[in-house]
Amino acid sequence: MEAAISVILVFMIIGAIFAIHAKDLLSAVITCGIIGYGLVICFLLLRAPDLAIVQIVVETITLVIMVAVVLDSTRREPFSKPDLREYVNISTAVVIIAVIFFFLKMASGSLDEFGKGSLRMAEHYIEGASSKTGSANLVTGVIFDFRGYDTLGEATVLVTAVLGVITILRLKGKK
Amino acid sequence: MKGMTLIVKKTTQLIAGLVFLYGIYVVLHGHLTPGGGFAGGVIIAGSFILLTLAYGSDFMKLTREETGTTITENLAILTALLIALAGLIFGAGIFFSNWLPAGKAGELISAGVIPLYNIFIGIEVAASILTIFLALIIFKEEITK
């Protein structure tokens, strides 16, 4: 399973790199879809159907909205020649990535193996989610009962995002 | 925004209702099967987006519609917050307390207040996705008129 996930991750990285270098804005948007749908397959391989459903639906709707917006706009991206500043930026990014990777490698030595063992809190969730909340779907039982604040925060983020979109996109002021 | 061809319109007529019903199913069965408020809400918004893209915003007379979706969204999240507050009064005195009887796991009406949260979060997500879509499509047309 890890080999399959690695192959999908490589495809996602290739798609991301192509999306940056695409000359057409439309093809860049559609290439971004590779990342989202690759993530859907990863979630399915890791046996997380709740996340996979949310991801596939949100990805499809976002892609449709982005294509509808891009078809209305100019579609051409401004092209600029690489200069000295760009090389400085790229080398800085590479150095930062190397530093973060080094410390991540150091810190991950003391963690549990991926997918093995669970935290003390998670064990209580797995045991009590069905009997304490009466919900057959453990994920819903956790996110709406034990982690209610978390869900409230997500919903608030969505409301704030909509308020921001309306405020920024409103070309004509309200009278 | 203009509508699409007759083939797209006819297919949309047949499919949009089914997509809407499937969204409601996913929201209502959120505590039994994978899915829930977030996924179902986005599916419901998808049916409206499909209609708007196929028929165009002129046919749907969508010029002032974004105010309606904003009010729906705000009322839905306010209701979800009020249900959470009701846990302080009726339940164990804890915010987000599950104050309705849990029932038998696996039945449609069970799990206390979780289905209610699912329904209102679903309405909120559907309204907000639709609001963003309409804002991107309609505000541009308002200025060109």
Brief description of this entry?
Chain A has helices at residues 2-21, 25-45, 49-72, 84-107, 120-133, 138-146, 148-169. By secondary structure, chain A is mainly alpha-helical.
List keywords for this structure.
heterodimer, A: 175 residues, mainly alpha, 2 domains, extended, B: 145 residues, 0% strand
Put simply, the count of helices of chain B is 4
Provide the succession of SSEs of chain A.
HHHHHHH
Going by helix content, strand content and strand pairing, the class of chain A is mainly alpha
Uncertain runs of chain A: none
Distance between the termini of chain A: 59 Å
The main β sheet of chain B shows up as: none
Percentage of residues in helical conformation of chain B: over 70%
The share of residues in helices of chain A is over 70%
Low-confidence stretches of chain B: none
The quaternary state of the protein chains shown equals heterodimer
* Tally of distinct domains of chain B: 1
Could you explain the architecture of this structure?
The complex is a heterodimer of chains A (175) and B (145). By secondary structure, chain A is mainly alpha-helical. Chain A has 2 domains: 1-84; 118-175, no CATH class. In chain A, 77% of the residues lie in helices and 0% in strands. Chain A has helices spanning 2-21, 25-45, 49-72, 84-107, 120-133, 138-146, 148-169. Chain A is extended and about 60 Å long. The mean pLDDT of chain B is 80. Helices cover 71% and strands 0% of the residues of chain B. Chain B has one domain. Chain B is elongated and about 55 Å long. The interface between A and B is large, with 45 and 55 residues.
What's the structural blueprint in terms of helices and strands?
The complex is a heterodimer of chains A (175) and B (145).
Chain A: H1 2-21, H2 25-45, H3 49-72, H4 84-107, H5 120-133, H6 138-146, H7 148-169
Helix pairs in contact in A: 1-2, 2-3, 5-6, 6-7
Chain B: H1 6-28, H2 37-59, H3 65-90, H4 114-144
